[in-house]
Amino acid sequence: MSTDTPIDPEAIENLRALNPDDDDAFLKDIIGIFLEDTPQRIAELKQCLVSYDQPKFTRAAHSIKGSASNLGASLVRSVAEQIEHQSRNSGLGEMEPFIQKLESEFAVAKAELDRIAGL
């Protein structure tokens, strides 16, 4: 994957190939779900920090990692993976910078996904 793009074009083409004759309807649905769900999972991460719910925090990070991977949002996936591993191995201390980085990478990925979906 090129480091110049926040979304792996091959991942997008793989999703398009699943339903090649639907005028990108499936791809747009998947993008829409990701763009709707990820901010909710990020909010969940923040709430779990307040309530110190480590298992729920780790699950939310894992969910973000998986959905980002499906869409080829490799930087979002990478940060979510760091968050997941950090929470599993070291608890929830010092997570705010990771969440801020996740929000930043998501904003970049969102802009590119909006462009791809024609939003």
Report the sheet with the most strands, covering strand number, pairing sense and barrel closure. none
Determine the structural class based on helices, strands and strand pairing: mainly alpha
- Give the strand tally: 0
Please write the CATH class name: Mainly Alpha
> What is the N-to-C succession of helices and strands?
HHHHH
- The overall average pLDDT, rounded, is 94
Overall form:
elongated
CATH architecture: Up-down Bundle
**How many DSSP H or I helices?**
5
The domain count comes to 1
**Beta fraction of the residues?**
under 5%
The helicity comes to: over 70%
What is the CATH topology? Four Helix Bundle (Hemerythrin (Met), subunit A)
Structural Rg: 15 Å
First-residue to last-residue Cα separation = 24 Å
- CATH-assigned homologous superfamily: HPT domain
Low-confidence sequence ranges: none
